[in-house]
Structure formats: C-alpha cells, structure tokens
Task: structure prediction
Amino acid sequence: MKLNELTAHELHDLLVNKAISCRELTEAVFTRVEAVEEQVKAYLTLTRDVAMQQAAAVDEKLARGEAIGALEGIPVAIKDVLCTQGIRTTCASKILYNFIPPYDATVVQKMRAAGMVFIGKANMDEFAMGSSTENSAFFPTRNPWDLTTVPGGSSGGSAAAVAADECIVALGSDTGGSIRQPASFCGIVGLKPTYGRVSRYGLIAFASSLDQIGPMTKDVTDCALLMNIIAGHDPLDSTSLPQPVPDYTNSLVPDVKGLRIGVPKEYFAQGVEPAVAEAVRAAIDKLCELGATAEETSTPYAEYGLPTYYIIAPSEASSNLARYDGVQYGYRAADESDVITMLRKTRAEGFGHEVKHRIMIGTYALSSGYYDAYYLKASKVRTLIKQDFDRAFEKYDVLITPTSPTVAFKLGERTDDPLAMKLADVCTIPVNMAGLPGISIPCGFDKGLPIGLQIIGKALDEETLLRVAYTYEQATEWHKQKPRL
Result:
C-alpha cells in the first residue's frame, strides 16, 4: 500500500521506526494530489512550500533522536473556512478571494504546535452554506467514488481529499451536518464535537450558535488522535467550554456490552432510501450481536429541525456577514460613485446566489414585526428539540440514525430544487440544534456509493461515540474500502 493510503497511526509507527522520512510521506501526498486533483478538485490552495518546511523540521527532530507526537509529521487538509496566517483563506467566496489572515485559528495554531504538515486549504460551499460543495465560487468538488456525484457539503473538499488519499486527515466545520454528511457521502469518518468542545476562534462564522469544528479521517483511531489535539477550552472563544479534555484514545476499546441504543423512528421516515435504512439497521443488529441492546424510540420534534434551522442559521448569517463590505479587506466593486453604491455593488458582486438567498431570509426573519413570528418561535422550537434528546438520553447511551437519507446524488441534480438539496441534512440538523456530538462512520454501499451511520451522544460524551464507532469499525470492513480513481 502507498504511503498516502495509510492511516495516521500507521504512518506514525513508520516515522518513529525511521522506516520512512516525513519528507517522503509529504512527497507521496503531493504526488497523489498531482495525479488526481484535476479530477477531484478538493483544494482551493496548495501549500507545498509550507508543507516541505514543516516536514523538514520533523525529520530534523527524528534525526536528533527526539520523540514525536502522535500526529507530528502527518499531512492535513484544512477547510478554507479556517484562518491560516500568511495563507490565503477564501471561504470559497469571491468576496474573500484575496484575503490573507494575519493570524491562525486556534485549531490551526494547535496543529502547528503539534507538528502537523499543511497540504492546503480545502474547497467548500461558499461560507459553508450548502450540502454539495457546488456553491463554491471557484468550482465544484467531485466525489472520488463516482466523479459524476457530489462529495456532500459544506466540507466536501475535506471529505474528498481524505477519501481520495490527497491527505491523511482533514479538518471540517459542521453547522447543520457539514462534517457528517460529506463523511457519509465519501465513506470516511467525520465527528461533530459537542458545541463548545473545540474553539471556534478563527473560524469564519456562518451561524455562531451552531458552528463547530471537527475531524475528518480514514478511521476512528485517527479521529480520536485529532480530537486530542484540537479539543479544549480557549479564552479567545467566549462559547468555549472550560471542561477538562480526556485522552480520546482511551475510548478505543471494542466493547459495547450493556450499551443501550435508541433508534428514533422519525429518522427512518419518508425520504430515506430503502438501501440506506437497511444498511443502518444491519449495523444496529451487528452492535447488538456484539453485546448492545437496541429499541425503537421517538423524538417527535425532530421533524421540525429543518424549518427551525432555516430560520435560525440564516438569521445568524445575516448578522455575521454584514462585516463583508469591501472597506477593510476582501473584494471591492470597481467604479463606485459613493460609499453606499460601493457597498451595495460589492455585496451584490461578491456574494453568490445561495449566500444572498440566506442573508435575505435571515434579514427578513429578524426584521421589525417578524422577529417574534419567526426567530423567537424558532428559538422556542429549538428548545423542544433539545428536550427531546434530553428525554431520550435518560434511557439510552446513544441514538443511532442514518447520516443522510440518501447516498451521494449527481452533480447538478438538485441545484434547481432547493428543498431536495436541504433535505440532505435532515438527519444531521437536529444534533446541531441541541449542541450534541455526532459521528458518521461507513456502514455499507448502495449503487457503489458509501452509506453513513450516525451515532449521536450526550453532551461532552464523545468518548462513548468513539467507543461505539470503534467497536463497529473493528467488526466490519467498510472503512477499508477505497475508491478507484
């Protein structure tokens, strides 16, 4: 197997034993990028010079006989929604096409300190608004399993890069499913941590009460290793939780004996493809064979997750995106006759259709006379959704659902059908509404495309999610399948 196809923990052993150098590993990844990137289009910016400098530093450390960290020297792709000092950060938007941040996001800073190797900035839906990575202002990304299909979104570039072996691990962000849904479509592992578990400082905001950064990896072990680096309290983020962070690798125990699984019936309702439901139920059966118990339950307010999300998220986006005006940084419209005209033209030309659409919805929902009818009511329904989960977790250790109701759909298939596009996130959105952790792992295939299993946990209980995911992974072979490009 080629170096770029291995997991981070396998590569760590090779580096420590000096069977390979970090330079060799980094070169192997860039060779793969050169071979397939024209087909996949996972990256917006490649950072070869930075990567080679980082690799050289790791090799020098190894040559001195010093110990290296678990992910030191491991190549990573970074979703282009995260600020990287001195490296272009576009959010896949024309309005930030030339923006070079003067500082690192906290998670980027942590990865630098851990000695990770930055391959580049991954493509995404503009400002993380979308479910297919077709909303990028630059180009759509393609799913490595079938280049005529989407990789999911908004972290589609990160998911595709991992699946295509164009990096070893990646970071994504998840506002309504943007880590888990592309992980499902691309057949990889994607974890959305508890809201506040990972610092959002330096994450370009979409919806501040929903956004969360998380790992996208080839297996559950790598997911735990990356969580060990990025999790933790950050005084620069007022929503960051001041809770101690466990060693997540201690959760990698293949044991679910006595685990209680709830299976919410609402997530298997109309719209879920039969093959997806069948694969998820087969995965639940496998966990029961391994010692867990499962029973059907109900989270009745789950069906309101989608409409609630599409009031709250656009409202927060309307507020957050007001800062993009062409005055201090980013795109500025030419030939402005006065400031007001310049602002109007800059935003009209700089934002794409989906971003404008959501800003308009949000601005309307927050406007005088409509705030109570829309935003306030949505906030109350959000509380009901959270209470649904609270009741379920009084009885169950985890909930299991499909990650997405379908496998990856064709490029262009849903661009003219906004509702069908938004329904791709119907199983993931309630988890963001409640601020809970959720993980997607591969559990089967339909029409040659991966199916994702979503495991939902209690707040700050990523350890149980990782244990359940690891137990299932070790008992199956789905995660070892690779696309043929």
